[in-house]
Each structure stands twice: as structure tokens, then as C-alpha cells.
């Protein structure tokens, strides 16, 4: 991709914004090198990795990048066999911990949606927990080695502590004994040796070694002779401590050296993941989406926004090219937004081709281009003696030499800067030449001749930027299919120009030209309405299709889960039955053993127990056989209020309506009302429970409800699991008669809190909900008042 287009379309500014969302300078270097990929496969893969990271952040919160650093220099030194300092070892250990944590972060249940691209990247991670733990156990700060790093270091520091305690006692007694000779009654340290401040005139009164003197010379810092040996011992211990620390650091550095390839690979993967998740966080900030990418030159971007303009100010525009037409000519007044529009088109293309999600709506389509050429802005050069026209033409010559069918070409004010007649003719010739090559072209112009060229040429379409004559301001909306109308007369009238001058001016224009302008105005109004309706219809259709796919996916997932649970239940039942049979055989063996030993008096009683147990087993087997074969008695008709078994959920439900024309019945299943097929309902055999049984059941229910806690802790759960657990808890709390409950979700990224708040807002048992007060846990909890 040519550097000039990346510069004039301001792709580098997008990369600078992206750098704000990564943690390491290594990831920033990857962003600096980022440019559009040169094949369609890479574009799709890098877009997919960004979207996967985006989904992971939403579902699981922030990725485990806490405390990671750019340790390329430290790894390079370790690879050469050098001994690393504690700070470098700690940072490498943090990289190893982060890489290991990432394999857990992207893990998911078998039935859940996977993260194919990110999982492939993380396949290269080699957990080095032993080295990681060894470093963290030995080093507790950037310049601090733990006492537990080795037994020798522990004993040396213990001995050093004891020696220091002894020498402090000794020197305190010396200070007291020589207080009349001292400048102050205290001791100090000079060169790691304990000394006392002696007045210069009394230096002969305190025998010892002079280590220093004050700036005035009035005080000498003397090491008393009685402390020399103790100070020497402390110095020796400190030297041994230093040597042991160097040995520990050397040993840890060798561990890195012997596993340098794995360490380098883990670090490179973490920096790449930092880059990928930076793209995802930037996409979240832009409210961006993953576009569909094709190699057919088709662009259809819905509600595209310029990524460098404030979201509250930018105007979103639909843009399409490559189906009915391959060239688009945009006209309109100055400051109307033409340049911003074409920059948005070009920049969104560059972002998508570089693996970045685009600021647009779902189902937007971009095309894969090998080159994006752009001639935008006034680049006149005094040094090169180039005028505006010459500067543009130099760039256009380069485009003509290199553009082909796999190129997107963007022109701003094509043919400007010279005689209007010659400039328009030249612009038409350039556009026609590139159109015949199969290029995709977007050009802005002021020339009316280009409007006519677009109207009469197949594959070329007019467009304009809207201008509000009432407010005399541009709306910055792009209108495809309608050439821009000159509003000079209307604007002049509203600014106060006399009507007779405007009428005289109209008289100087041919009637055909005036009719053409009026036709443009009519077309513009009709096109706005038609385009708006068509787009809204298409968006609704896309949303319905997406909702249907999501519903079908959830239904299949529920069906598979139900079948799995039923299979597991049947396996468990067979297992219980098998164990019971084994137990019976053991009992029978014991009985026979007792009989053989002469315990005939208990034979009759044991025989009765044996027959009774066999009877129970036969009953269990018969019930299981009936369940497996018949699955209950089918119902021909049902009446409201009737209790039946819903086979698809294996749950008792209450019938609420008669059978309708579709053969469906409305039933109450817990708090839900659903429509089911009559054929999925079965008759429940057996009488209703007795009063005693109902009383016992009610007693058990009350006992269960009395044990419902007033709070629930969701920390550590993902959004889906937390919503399910909270829903079940609210049912129990409601049945127990609790008036207010506390839901603990933690602060984190706010994703879990948002999911819980949304669920509480529509839950049938919840009256109101609020964030907890400071004393209740603040934003880490939500308090719900039940109905």
C-alpha cells in the first residue's frame, strides 16, 4: 500500500489513537508497523481475531495483562547468558504468569462458542510455572530479595540481624560512657561502620579509628576500638549476603537461559495479544463492527462515521459502490462535507484491510483492494516550483501509471486549479480512462460537466452533499443518485440580495439549465425518501434474520442440553440399579453363609427380607422399562387446570387453554407461559397427594425457604452463568418472602453489573433496584427490592 494514501487519509492518526489502548511499547511497535494486509485471507483472519477479543472482553471482562512490560532487552541479555537484575527477572516472571493466565482466560465449555483464531495463537504458549514461582518466591520487589530465597541467605540475614542488635547495645553503652566528649549523645554510620561524633578537642580521649569529620572540622566520627571487630564481622556478613544474592540471581537467570526459546515465544505471543486486545478496546470506544469482506470490489457501508471526529458531532452516512455502478461523482458547495465524506470512505477501507473493526453498523460490506490511491488536499510546493494544479497532476500521473481493477481511487476536486473548461474536460478523460480499467472511483468536483458525464455514462453515478437552504448550513448528509443542485440564487435571496437582481441573473441562464436544476431538486427530495425507506427495510430484514439465527441456535443448544441431561439421568439410574443388584447378591451370599454355620432360626426372616428387596428391584426395573418404552400415556384432549408432563422439558406443567387449530396448547411452566404441541404432553399417573403428604411438603418448603440468604455472591462468574444463578435465587427469595436482597457482582469492568442490572429491570419479582451505598459495598453490589 502506497505511503502517500496512508498519510493523506490520516491512517497514521488512527494508529496513534490505537496506541492508547495497549500496555507495552512492544505492542506499540506492532501498531507502528501496521498497514493493510496484502491478501484476503489475512484480512479476514485479523478481523476475526479482533472481533473474538471484543467478544471476550464483553463476556469475561479485561484480559490478564496486569503488570506486563516490554522486556525485550532483558530477554536478549538472558539469551546471551548474562545475569539479570531483580527488576528484569520480576518483569519476565510477570510475562510468564500473564501468558499462562491467558490460556485459562480463553478457555470455554465444550458447548459454548469458541475463539478459533485466538486459541490458535495461544497454542504456542508454554506454561513455565516452575520458573515463574521460583522468581516470585525469591524476589519480592524491584531491588529486594526475599529471606526465603535460600536457606543460606536466611541464616546470613538472621546472623546479621543478631550482630546489629549486639553492636547497637555496645555502642549505646559507649555513648553513655563518653557523653562528655561527644558533640551529640547518639551514634551514626559511616561507610557501613558504626561511629560516634567526638568533639575534635577530645579526640585523644576516645581511642579508635577516624572515618570522617564534619564540614566545620569541629566533629570527628570515630569508630571505637572495642567496635572494630564487631564492625568487621558485620562487614563480612554483608559481603557474604551480597555474594549469595548474586548467586541466586545468577541461578534464576540460568533458568531463563535454559528455557529462552519458550520465554521468547510466550513474550511475543503476549505482545501480539496486547496488540489484538488494543484493537478490540479501540473498537469498543468507536462502537465499531466487523465488516463483511469480499474480493469483488463491492462496498456497502451502513451509517459510516469518520473515526477521528467526535462521535457526538460526526454525521453518519450510508455509502455503496461496485454493484450497479463503479464510479461515483460527488458534487456540492464548499464546506459541505465532500472531503470528509471521501476521507471516511478511504479510511474505513484502510482500517478494515488492516484488521481493525470499522465505525459503522452491522452487515456493512467492504472490498479487498491491493491499492488505495488518494489525491486529496492542496500540496503546492514553493521549493519544487509546483502550483496547486501541478502538484495534483504529478500525483494523478502516478495513479494513472499504477491503478488497475484491484484499486480504489479517490479524487478531491479533480481538475481544479486551472481553466474550468480545460479542467472539466481533463477530469472526464481521467475518470473515463480509469473506469475502463475496472477501477473503483470516488471523485468530488464543482464542475457541472461532470454531472452530465455521470448522468449519461453507464457505470457512473451522481451523488451530492445536502445543503439546508433554510438555515444556510450544510447537513453533511451524502445523497447517492442525485447530483448537487446549485443553491446560489436561494442563498443570495436569504442573505438579502434584491429580487430584481436575482431575476436578471436567471434571465442570463438558458431555460433548459433552469429546468435541469428544478429537476434535480425534485429528484433529490424523492430520492431522500425512497433511500431512507429502502435502507430501513433492509436493516429490519437483517435484524430479523439475525434474531432468527440466534433463536435457532439457542433452541438447538437447549435441546442438546436437555437430551444430554436425560441420557445422564438414565445412565445414573442404571448405575444405581446395578449397584443394588450387587448388594442383593452380597446379602444372599451372607445368608447362605449364616445357614451353613447353623443359624437356621433366622432363615425365615432373612428369606422374607430377600423377597421384599427383590420385589422392590423388580418394581424399579418395571418402572424404568415403562419410562423407556412408553414415555407416558399420550393425551387425546386436555382441559384448563389439568396437570400434565411436558416431555421436552421432563417437567410437570399446568394447562391454561384448549387445543388450538395448530394443535398447540398454552401451559404454565414455573413462571413462564409457553405454547407446546399436544403430542408432547403425557398423562401423569397416580392420585393426588394426601393431606399429610401436602402438609409435610409445605413444611419442607417453609424450612427450605427460611434458609434463603439475603445476599448472593456472583464474583468469578461470567455474564450468562451469573444471570441464570440470580434468576433462580430471586425465585427462592420471593417464595421465602424476603423484601430486599443484595446481589454482589464486584466492580471490575462493569460488564457483570450491566448484565445483572438489565436482568433485574425486567424480572417479574423485582420492584426496584439500585446501586449499593458506600456502607453496603458501593458499585460492587446491587440492592433489589422484591414485590
Description of the molecule:
By secondary structure, the chain is of the alpha+beta class. It folds into 5 domains: 17-128 and 259-283, MutS, DNA mismatch repair protein, Chain A, domain 3, CATH 1.10.1420.10; 151-234; 292-497, P-loop containing nucleotide triphosphate hydrolases (Rossmann fold), CATH 3.40.50.300; 630-686, SH3 type barrels, CATH 2.30.30; 691-786, Ribosomal Protein S8, Chain: A, domain 1 (2-Layer Sandwich), CATH 3.30.1370. Helices cover 52% and strands 16% of the residues. The chain contains 22 helices and 26 strands. The strands form 7 sheets. A 6-stranded mixed β-sheet has the order 12-13-14-10-15-16, with helices on both faces. A 6-stranded antiparallel β-sheet has the order 17-22-18-19-20-21, with no helix packed on it. Helix 3 (25-32) crosses helix 11 and helix 21 (719-735) crosses helix 22. The chain is flat, with a radius of gyration of 41 Å. Its EC number is 3.1.-.-, 3.6.4.-. Residues 227-255, 520-623 form a coiled coil. ATP binds at residues 332-339. Belongs to the DNA mismatch repair MutS family. MutS2 subfamily.
Low-confidence stretches: 379-386, 687-691
- Determine the CATH topology of the largest domain: Rossmann fold
Shape: flat
Question: Radius of gyration in whole Å, from Cα?
Answer: 41 Å
Largest sheet: 6 strands, mixed
**How much beta, percentage-wise?**
15-25%
Treating each run of at least 4 consecutive H or I residues as one helix, how many helices? Answer: 22
* β-strand number: 26
Mean pLDDT value: 81
CATH architecture of the largest domain: 3-Layer(aba) Sandwich
**What would you call the structural class?**
alpha+beta
Q: Percentage of helical residues? A: 40-55%
Amino acid at each position: 500500500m502506497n505511503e502517500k494514501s496512508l498519510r493523506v487519509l490520516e491512517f497514521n492518526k488512527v494508529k496513534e489513537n490505537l496506541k492508547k489502548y495497549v500496555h507495552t511499547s512492544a505492542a506499540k511497535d506492532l501498531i507502528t508497523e501496521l498497514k493493510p494486509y496484502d491478501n484476503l485471507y489475512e484480512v479476514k483472519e485479523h478481523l476475526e481475531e479482533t472481533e473474538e477479543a471484543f467478544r471476550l472482553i464483553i463476556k469475561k471482562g479485561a484480559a490478564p495483562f496486569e503488570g506486563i512490560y516490554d522486556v525485550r532487552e532483558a530477554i536478549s541479555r538472558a539469551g546471551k547468558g548474562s545475569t539479570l537484575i531483580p527488576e528484569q527477572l520480576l518483569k519476565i516472571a510477570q510475562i510468564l504468569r500473564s501468558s499462562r493466565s491467558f490460556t485459562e482466560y480463553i478457555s470455554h465449555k465444550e458447548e459454548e462458542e469458541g475463539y478459533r483464531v485466538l486459541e490458535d495463537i495461544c497454542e504456542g504458549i508454554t506454561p513455565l510455572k516452575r520458573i515463574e514461582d521460583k522468581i516470585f518466591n525469591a524476589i519480592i520487589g524491584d531491588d529486594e530479595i526475599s529471606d526465603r530465597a535460600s536457606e543460606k541467605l536466611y541464616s546470613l540475614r538472621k546472623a546479621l540481624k543478631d550482630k546489629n542488635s549486639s553492636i547497637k547495645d555496645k555502642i549505646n553503652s559507649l555513648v553513655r560512657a563518653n557523653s562528655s566528649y561527644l558533640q551529640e549523645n547518639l551514634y551514626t554510620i559511616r561507610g557501613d561502620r558504626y561511629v560516634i561524633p567526638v568533639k575534635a578537642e577530645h579526640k585523644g580521649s576516645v581511642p579508635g579509628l577516624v572515618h570522617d569529620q564534619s564540614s566545620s572540622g569541629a566533629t570527628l566520627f570515630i569508630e571505637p576500638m572495642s567496635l572494630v571487630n564487631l564492625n568487621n564481622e558485620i562487614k563480612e556478613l554483608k559481603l557474604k549476603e551480597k555474594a549469595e544474592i548474586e548467586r541466586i540471581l545468577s541461578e534464576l537467570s540460568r533458568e531463563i537461559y535454559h528455557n529462552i526459546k519458550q520465554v521468547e515465544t510466550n513474550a511475543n505471543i503476549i505482545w501480539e495479544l496486547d496488540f489484538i486486545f488494543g484493537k478490540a478496546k479501540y473498537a469498543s470506544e468507536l462502537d465499531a463492527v466487523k465488516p463483511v469482506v469480499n474480493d469483488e470490489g463491492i462496498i456497502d457501508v451502513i451509517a459510516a462515521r469518520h473515526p477521528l471526529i467526535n462521535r457526538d458531532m460526526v454525521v453518519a452516512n450510508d455509502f455503496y459502490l461496485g454493484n450497479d455502478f463503479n464510479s461515483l461523482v460527488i458534487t456540492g458547495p464548499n464546506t459541505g462535507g465532500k472531503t470528509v465524506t471521501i476521507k471516511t470512505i478511504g479510511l474505513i477501507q484502510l482500517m478494515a484491510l488492516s484488521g481493525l473493526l470499522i465505525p459503522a453498523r452491522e452487515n456493512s460490506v467492504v472490498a479487498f483492494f491491493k491499492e488505495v490511491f488518494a489525491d486529496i488536499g492542496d500540496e503546492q510546493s514553493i521549493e519544487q516550483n509546483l502550483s496547486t494544479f501541478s502538484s495534483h497532476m504529478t500525483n494523478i500521473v502516478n495513479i494513472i501509471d499504477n491503478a488497475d481493477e484491484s484499486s480504489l481511487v479517490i479524487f478531491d476536486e479533480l481538475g481544479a486549479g486551472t481553466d474550468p473548461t480545460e479542467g472539466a474536460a481533463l477530469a472526464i478523460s481521467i475518470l473515463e480512462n480509469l473506469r475502463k480499467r475496472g477501477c473503483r472511483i470516488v471523485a468530488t468536483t464543482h464542475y457541472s460537466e461532470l454531472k452530465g458525464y455521470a448522468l449519461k455514462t453507464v457505470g457512473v453515478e451522481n451523488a451530492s452533499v445536502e445543503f439546508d437552504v433554510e438555515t444556510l448550513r450544510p447537513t453533511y448528509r451524502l445523497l447517492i443518485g442525485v447530483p448537487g443542485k446549485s443553491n446560489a440564487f436561494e442563498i443570495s435571496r436569504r442573505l438579502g440580495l434584491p429580487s430584481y437582481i436575482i431575476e436578471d441573473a436567471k434571465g442570463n441562464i438558458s431555460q433548459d439549465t433552469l429546468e435541469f436544476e428544478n429537476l434535480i431538486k425534485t429528484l433529490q427530495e424523492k430520492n431522500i425518501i425512497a433511500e431512507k425507506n429502502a435502507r430501513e427495510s433492509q436493516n429490519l430484514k437483517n435484524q430479523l434474520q439475525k434474531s432468527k439465527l440466534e433463536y435457532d441456535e439457542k433452541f438447538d443448544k437447549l435441546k442438546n442440553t436437555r437430551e444430554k441431561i436425560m441420557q445422564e439421568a438414565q445412565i445414573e439410574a442404571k448405575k444405581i440399579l446395578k449397584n443394588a443388584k450387587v448388594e442383593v447378591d452380597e446379602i444372599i451370599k451372607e445368608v447362605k453363609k449364616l445357614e451353613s454355620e447353623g443359624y437356621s432360626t433366622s432363615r425365615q426372616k432373612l428369606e422374607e427380607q430377600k423377597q421384599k428387596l427383590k420385589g422392590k428391584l423388580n418394581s424399579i426395573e418395571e418402572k424404568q422399562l415403562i419410562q423407556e418404552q412408553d414415555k407416558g400415556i399420550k393425551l387425546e384432549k386436555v382441559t384448563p387446570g389439568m396437570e400434565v408432563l411436558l416431555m421436552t422439558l421432563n417437567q410437570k406443567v399446568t394447562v391454561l387453554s384448549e387445543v388450538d387449530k395448530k394443535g398447540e396448547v398454552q401451559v404454565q411452566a414455573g413462571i413462564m407461559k409457553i405454547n407446546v404441541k399436544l403430542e408432547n404432553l403425557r398423562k401423569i399417573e397416580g392420585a393426588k397427594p394426601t393431606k399429610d403428604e401436602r402438609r409435610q411438603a409445605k413444611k419442607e418448603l417453609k424450612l427450605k425457604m427460611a434458609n434463603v440468604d439475603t445476599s448472593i455472591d456472583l464474583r468469578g462468574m461470567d455474564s450468562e452463568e451469573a444471570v441464570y444463578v440470580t434468576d433462580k435465587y430471586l425465585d427462592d427469595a420471593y417464595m421465602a418472602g424476603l423484601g430486599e436482597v443484595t446481589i454482589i457482582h464486584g466492580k471490575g469492568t462493569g460488564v457483570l453489573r450491566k448484565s445483572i442490572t438489565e436482568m433485574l429491570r425486567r424480572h417479574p419479582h423485582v420492584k426496584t433496584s439500585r446501586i449499593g451505598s458506600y456502607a453496603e459495598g458501593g458499585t460492587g453490589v446491587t440492592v433489589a427490592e422484591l414485590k
